[in-house]
Amino acid sequence: MRTSPGGSGDAAAVDAGAPGRGEGASGAAPVPAPAPPLAESSGRDAGWRPRSPVRPRGPGPGAGSAAGRAGPGRAARGPAGAAMWALRALCLAGLGAAIGGGAADQCSWRGSGLSQEAGSVEQLSLHCAEGSLEWLYPTGALRLRLAPRLPPTSAAVKGRSPPRVTACIKPSATFRGAQLYLEREGGLELLLPEAPRPHARCFSWLPHEKVALFLQATPQPDISRRIAAFRYELRGDWLAVLGPAGACRPCNDTEILMAICTSDFVIRGSIRSVSNNAELQESIIAVSATRIHRQKFPLFQAGGRPGRPVGSIRTPLRCGVRPGPGSFLFTGWLHFGEAWLSCAPRYRDFQRIYRGAQRTHQNPCEFPVD
């Protein structure tokens, strides 16, 4: 558990992901080698939408012109009419490609395998720090390149290795019809099998490494409805900050001071209860908040004692969180819309640490202390 050095181990911290994050799976079934990467966009420009054809200007019907004699809905003969019909045909062709290939933006993609050949590989590229993919009736394969435009989390320092990028994949509860592989350095590593209730997985890579996700459809005996869907998150040097080796160790003074400045939520409160989920390998801490210093989303809402918001914070089951008395300062990160713990010092320990940093002008940010 990551409490302050003087803490009693009543709260814990979590690494970047839910159970199973970061470790590679072995024994992946052999799959056809993925096609070489294409350009930034897919072969089908699924995000393009045709504009309505503009009718050529001219006298209205009955004015004696060719356009007028053509009548409503007809193209005028001559160069103008031919151009209009060409534009209309081009628009219909683009619309058909968009419907067949799926809808995409810079963050998410949704499409169907019904228009895809069994042995084909469709190339996709997403550029956001988070998003989703939904593939109905999987056929063939998808090769997904994750190229987020992330702000630099830490400047490159001479003598230090460059920061890594971390991605986490959370499959839907009904993930069916495909298996997800991590493609790295020409090899494939199984991330998500086609299995009941697959768990979230995390992995990381250096900026110069070429990685991609390879989603391959599995053979099916029938044509019943199947959907391979998942959400993804990409962060900066996430695993380095919350690595597996330090997931349950106490936070030191420097980590506590940084946590109050950079975390997605900073909540002062007490532990109401702790429940364990053996299947997900998670502990869920029910917290009654006495003061909300920061929360990027409304994680804590009214519902407990009068004037005291309540909420839940998750941590790995292996950290052995136990309920304990007293007031804590809970800090952590959002992970697929859920609060995960990083540091949770007892509040009296935090006061001592922060006031000591203030006296030596080493506090990284200003923070209200009662």
Automatic annotation (TrEMBL):
Belongs to the meteorin family. This is Meteorin, glial cell differentiation regulator. Residues 66-78 have a biased composition (Low complexity). Residues 1-78 are annotated as: Disordered. The lineage of its organism: Eukaryota, Metazoa, Chordata, Craniata, Vertebrata. It is found in: Secreted. Its main location: secreted. Keywords: Disulfide bond, Secreted, Signal. It comes from Junco hyemalis (Dark-eyed junco).
